[in-house]
Amino acid sequence: MKIAVVGATGLVGTVMLKVLEERNFPLTELIPVASEKSVGKEITFKGKQFKVVNMETAIAMKPDIALFSAGGGTSLKYAPLFAEAGTTVIDNSSAWRMDPSKKLIVPEVNAYELSIDDKIIANPNCSTIQMVVALKPLHDKYRIKRVVVSTYQSVTGTGVKAVEQMMNERKGILDGPMAYPYQIDLNVIPQIDVFEANGYTKEEMKMIKETRKIMGDESIRVTATTVRIPVMGGHSESVNIEFENDFDVADVKSLMEKTQGIILVDDIDNLKYPMPKDAHEKDEVFVGRIRRDESMPNTLNMWIVADNLRKGAATNAVQIAEFLLQKELI
Ligand code: A2P
Q1: CATH value at residue 36
Q2: Which of 141, 166, 265, 280 is most buried when burial is the number of CB atoms within 10 A of its CB?
Q3: Which protein residue has the closest C-alpha to ligand 1 atom 20?
């Protein structure tokens, strides 16, 4: 099993390598890929050194799977070239997510859709992934009518430059390189990605469209407000869900507890609820603060937290690769 990690020197690529190593992914050859400026750099994986190569070299090496996290433009250009060479691409960018001919996969929710013919598979947006893991079992049992979500997103989702901006500001350096239009430390920015014509941001529209595609149900109504906060470790979400059918809060908690990939942290008597600090470097989605919305019938409030670089990106991609392998789809 030859695995290429495209964007191996980036924030998500680095976590992909860590996750492949931790989960003991059965690879026989690792091909780290980055831009020309990084070619020849050494990457350590399982105690061995691997040299970074460029795209052309990687394609010629015909990897079985390429995990891509090198930006949308790079994916649009190179994913088809890998696919033509017989490689199955799992792409973390937004390039292919809403393409009707490409599958958008969260293994706990819709891995069953995958077939041997899927040569470019899309990994969803980080905020969407953690939400749908919790929504799916609830939709199956109570039928979701509408979701209202507000996010509290980590700066790591923007990349290295954003982490540097926040850390600089924390040290009082206010004239360093800026990843955001405003100071992020000691602040909250109600804008993630660019604004669209309808007044929503691209990130908000991704949550709306991707949720329906992954859940395979265009009737689910979703509205979102996505917000950047000065936090590392993970994204948090306040989620309000209206169902067609009534539910029992204890049943919802038990359903969350039984769902693969979810850890229920919901013990208010002992002040236990999910927080990004605790989700950091974990592969699971953490759910808590489950309670009835007393202002609306059949409606629930919950709080969902996950490490956006792990389940929101790298872990989800590696889990897709594991599924392909297990089902002999490559
Ligand atoms: P490099 O480090 O050589 O620039 P991040 O999102 O954290 O900035 O990381 C982006 C990743 O994508 C990096 O590993 C970067 O490599 C890689 N990358 C960017 N453009 C290309 C390209 N045209 N070909 C290959 N890798 C690229």
Answers
A1: 3.40.50.720
A2: 166
A3: 35
